UniProtKB/TrEMBL annotation:
Species of provenance: Sporosarcina ureae
Family annotation (Gene3D superfamilies): Glycoside hydrolase/deacetylase
Origin organism lineage: Bacteria, Bacillati, Bacillota, Bacilli, Bacillales
Subunit record text: Forms a complex composed of PxpA, PxpB and PxpC.
Name this protein carries in UniProt: 5-oxoprolinase subunit A
Broad class of enzyme this protein falls into: hydrolase
């Protein structure tokens, strides 16, 4: 039976500003990427999101980003690999403390936004992030764009690496995500999204914006928690996956059942 993880970026509210309906979306996803305070999130939001994830039986991971609250971590910054390493270690540590209160293990680490994109194409940044995750705990799973520099770095250092695909994003012929600066970057039609996801999971390929098929591996599917219809999107994708006899389960639970 085909199995896949369904993840969402959560805990991205800040202070008095609320983003996303995480109480509802946690009913459908199996892994939560929790913001650690650099691009979004604050201590209270982190604590609340950890508790919600635990209550819903959802596996928890750190979602480190660039220190850019105004730009929501989606603007490139000229950082060194050493700075990337330090940022990731620091943010993992922040979330680990909240998990320690509940004696809850951390499942994974997934970089956010521009840091994720930079690591997908820049070998030096990718290796620094993979090393940061490994140095904190070799048992952590690294979520990385399928067949990118980050997934290669994770595998090379010995991390369990989950190749990630996106339900609501379009792809370029080189396997990279279409830049959010382009009008066709996001998929808003549920059926188009579901069809893309099913093809990626069952056939290991995605149709690029250039009309070519790109081979990839799909271990985990991302649904952005800040989307306008994120909850409905998550429910629809889950129902379609189940209808295709694709089991939705967290990476850690899949590993334990082997």
């Amino acid at each position: 039976m085909v199995k896949v993880d369904l993840n969402s970026d959560l805990g991205e509210s800040f202070g008095r500003y609320t983003l996303g309906e995480q109480k509802e979306i946690l009913k459908y996803v199996t892994s939560a990427n929790i913001a650690c305070g650099f691009h979004a999130g604050d201590p209270s939001v982190m604590r609340e999101t950890v508790q919600l994830a635990i209550d819903n039986g959802v596996r928890i991971g750190a979602h480190p980003g660039l220190p850019d609250l105004v730009g929501f971590g989606r603007r490139d910054m000229n950082i060194t690999p050493e700075e990337a390493y330090d940022m990731v270690v620091y943010q993992i540590g922040a979330l680990q403390a909240f998990l320690a209160v509940h004696q809850e293990p951390m499942q994974h680490v997934k970089p956010h936004g521009a840091l994720y994109q930079m690591a997908s194409r820049d070998q030096g940044i990718a290796e620094a992030i993979a090393k940061a995750v490994y140095d904190v705990s070799p048992s952590l799973v690294l979520f990385a764009l399928a067949d990118s520099e980050l997934s290669k770095a994770g595998e090379a250092i010995g991390l369990v690496t989950a190749h990630e695909v996106f339900a609501d994003r379009t792809y370029q012929s080189n396997g990279m995500l279409t830049s959010r600066s382009q009008d066709d970057a996001m998929i808003t039609d549920q059926e188009q999204s579901a069809a893309q996801v099913i093809t990626m999971v069952k056939e290991g390929k995605v149709r690029s914006q250039q009309g070519t098929d790109v081979a990839l591996r799909a271990d985990t599917i991302c649904i952005h928690g800040d989307g306008e219809h994120a909850v409905e999107f998550a429910k629809y994708i889950t129902d379609r996956l189940n209808g295709e006899e694709i089991t939705v389960t967290a990476i850690a639970d899949r590993e334990e059942s082997v």
